[in-house]
Design a protein that fits this description.
This protein is of the alpha+beta class. It has five helices and five strands, in the order E-E-H-H-H-H-H-E-E-E. A hairpin with a 2-residue loop joins strand 1 and strand 2. Helix 1 packs across helix 4. The protein starts with 5 loop residues before the first strand and ends with a strand.
Length: 198
């Protein structure tokens, strides 16, 4: 493998060091993207509320059409436009902000690693063997790893849920009803009874 050198002051950086730098930059970018999704993205409850409001609006539109109430239909159309505007701002504004931030970061990375636009890898991926193809490889790898860990965690949580075991007939729960709350008190595993009083 041919080794290129990149000089920053007195420090010499080889291809391996550049690859490691791009690895850590990619890890930071993936983490930054996940944090932005968490902060700026629509949470599931808000999306569910908007969908319910849209369904309610559609039902009211059908009712107004069957009654022939044109004034009500105009008001509902205005309300529908406001709901659409609200949905677009909640969905597209964060995406545009993320896109602008990532383009700025890519511009800076491209400027810093301009000498490594080719020749970092001994093979070609996506028609390139420079820093960008390396970034794509690491980004896809870290994203798949995050998705896989998330799925494993979800599967683990689902299988640890005692209420699911109850549905399967493995555990019987006895509950104490007070103030409309059910709290598990005993678990019956075949002939043995274990108390879970806190």
């Amino acid at each position: 493998m041919k080794c290129h050198f990149y000089y920053i002051g007195d420090q010499t950086i080889t291809n391996i060091a550049v690859i490691l730098q791009i690895l850590f930059i990619t890890l930071g970018m993936v983490a930054f993207g996940l944090i932005l999704n968490k902060i700026l993205g629509i949470n599931p409850q808000a999306a569910k509320d908007i969908q319910e409001e849209a369904k309610n609006l559609q039902e009211r539109m059908r009712t107004a059409q069957t009654l022939g109430d044109y004034q009500m239909m105009r008001e509902l159309q205005h309300e529908s436009m406001q709901l659409t505007r609200q949905m677009m701002t909640k969905q597209f504004l964060p995406q545009c902000l993320r896109l602008i931030l990532f383009l700025v970061i890519f511009y800076v990375i491209g400027f810093i690693y301009a000498d490594y636009s080719s020749g970092l890898l001994p093979f070609t991926i996506f028609g390139d063997n420079g820093w960008f193809s390396l970034y794509l490889i690491f980004s896809i790898g870290f994203s798949l790893l995050y998705y896989l860990l998330k799925r494993i965690n979800k599967y683990r949580k689902e299988n640890e849920d005692p209420w699911k075991l109850n549905k399967m007939g493995l555990i019987k729960f006895y509950s104490n009803k007070s103030n409309n709350e059910e709290t598990p008190m005993k678990v019956d595993l075949s002939n043995n009874v274990f108390n879970y009083n806190e």
